[in-house]
Amino acid sequence: MHIKYTEQPESHRRDWRTIRSLLPYLWNYRGRAGLALAFLVLSKVAIVGVPLALKEIVDALDSPEGRAVALPIALLLAYGLLRLAGSAFNELRDVVFAKVRHGTMRELALKSLEHLHKLSLRYHLERKTGALSRDMERGTRSASSLLNYMLFSILPTAVELGLITLILLSQYQPRYALIVAVMVTIYVTLTILITNWRMKYRHRMNTMDSEANSQAIDSLINYETVKYFNNEQFEQQRYGKTLQQWQDAAVMSQTSMSGLNITQGAIIAVGVTLIMIFAAQEVIAGTMSLGDLVLVNAFMLQVFIPLNFLGVVYSQVKHALSDMDRMFKLLQENPEIRDDKDAPALEVGEGEIRFEQVSFHYQPERAILRELSFTVPAGKKLAVVGHSGAGKSTLARLLFRFYDVSGGRILINGQDIRQVSQQSLRKAIGIVPQDTVLFNDSIGYNIAYGRCDASQAAIEEAARMANIHDFIASLPDGYETVVGERGLKLSGGEKQRIAIARAVLKNPRILIFDEATSSLDSRSEKTILDALQQLAHHHTTLVIAHRLSTIVDADQILVMDQGQLVEQGSHQVLLAQGGHYAQMWALQQEEQNKEEFGILEPVEQGVENP
Asked: Are the beta carbons of 400 and 516 closer than 8 angstroms?
């Protein structure tokens, strides 16, 4: 695969952009970062001082006077103290910088999750959760790795190289410093060029890794669907094909890394050999002492041993920058739904809801709502019915402001919901959704999600109102029973009752029931309707219904068809009109009669008892 030269400048710009994006997080720890750098310099000064002390020791022992008098105790003590200082300052650097690394990682993780919560529902519906979570994980982990490489590998090597070059230039012939400079330049240049070429394999690995992770999570989340259609083998093949592509890229990445290491080893070997040849010649000629030879050799080892890992370090830095680039692109994603600057909190008052000429579309070519107008009076119950695809559930999404209307406006207590804060808007509304998704935690936790500071007594009272307390109490673990991923251990009806209990606990001024009894059989439905009616009492209530029997007590019923309002009135008025509503009622009554005579027997299955 040929990499165009134009990609390299773009890659460099992207890397610098990523580093700049990281700097604000580091600035929060600038004091600790500065202290860690100071310890780093002190450590390298001590480490570079070790060969200097060793040179003096060797020269002292090599001279006849030194051998005749005594051991150079002062020099030996200085040698030991320098080694101790180098190690101690290194550890102090690690201790001081630990909070910088892990603190930055924590702040990035929190920022990423906060930003994901700000992004619109549309964004989350279009992205794969598995790939998204992997990008976040790699990005935050890579931030810590990048800081680690910078302070523990790159900067120490640069400081040490600078100190050694200064000593060589000041005490020896320029050729030694020149050889070091030329070898290091060749080494670094080749490392960067080859590593940049290798990065395409890393990018491919990341893409395939995220894709494979997404496929695995999707197949596990949809475990039952996989089993229903005997598609275990299909999922394995799909996952295996992606993993094979990841493996191919990983093998090429490792193979090219080995080639890079061989090239680096050859450069180091040539540089060390040249310097040792020149140094040995000078020792023989008497222009350098044996201590000088030891010093130069020690300096070369101190320079080239860290450089031997430069390829790995540079590669890892590039990988970290690549991983972080994905995360920062995510953080730069603009939320579709934003609060106005200094948006006031919603004054919900009595909670009147008004839709004024509301139009909406997900895609411009497909209208969902067309100039829809209606009012839900404060404290009243309004129901919306219609065939699938009529746009009923979209009303709830617009009211929660998961999307903004394409035309018209929605008012609560006379305030356009686009001009108030989203947090205050959603605080005023409670919902029992059609598809209740629960957290993989306890039943008590899921009910308490309606009000996180609620007491156990309040949680149980909400469960009683939702007619599920007795069922929970019959379980071995009671309210501590874990519901499983997305609540899979519960039946649809049990999940909906938990959703009702959650809405009861929140106790908002405005309530939305989005087909809240759709997963209940007729007997359970009749039992829970009383709870819903009690919950809706003195609340402004919008009911989106499929079963018309659940909304006969509504103050007003709207009948929608293809995003438009076609009928409205009370239950009796609409029956008398003999239109859409009357036809739907007749059809559902016929189905109910068949059910009562045993032709249809819906069964609600309970929780798996451990």
From this structure: no
322-346 burial: b if 16+ Cβ within 10 Å, else e: bbbbbbbebeeeeeebebeeebeeb
- Distance separating alpha carbons of residues 435 and 547, to the nearest angstrom: 15
Q: Is the pLDDT of residue 138 over 70?
A: yes
Domains by residue range for the chain, with CATH: 15-331 (1.20.1560.10), 353-437+504-596 (3.40.50.300)
Contact call for residues 521 and 494 (beta carbons, < 8 A): no
Query: In the β-sheet with 540-544, what is the strand arrangement from edge to edge?
Result: 429-432, 510-514, 540-544, 381-386, 556-561, 564-569
Reference 513, options 534, 523, 499, 524; nearest CA is 499
| R_g over Cα of the chain | 35
What are the backbone dihedrals phi and psi of residue 356, each rounded to the nearest 5 degrees, phi first? Answer: -120, 105
Residue 541's φ and ψ, nearest 5 degrees, are -125, 130
From CA 23, how far away is CA 193, in angstroms rounded?
26
pLDDT digits (tens, 9 = 90+) for 329-346: 777 778 888 888 889 999
pTM greater than 0.85:
no
Buried b (16+ CB within 10 A) or exposed e, 351-360: bbbbbbebeb
SS3 140: helix
For residues 226 and 233, the answer to whether their CB atoms sit within 8 Å is no
What CA–CA distance (Å, rounded) separates 490 from 484?
A: 8
Contact 554, 569 (CB under 8 A): no
The tens digit of pLDDT for each residue in 55-65 reads 877 877 776 65
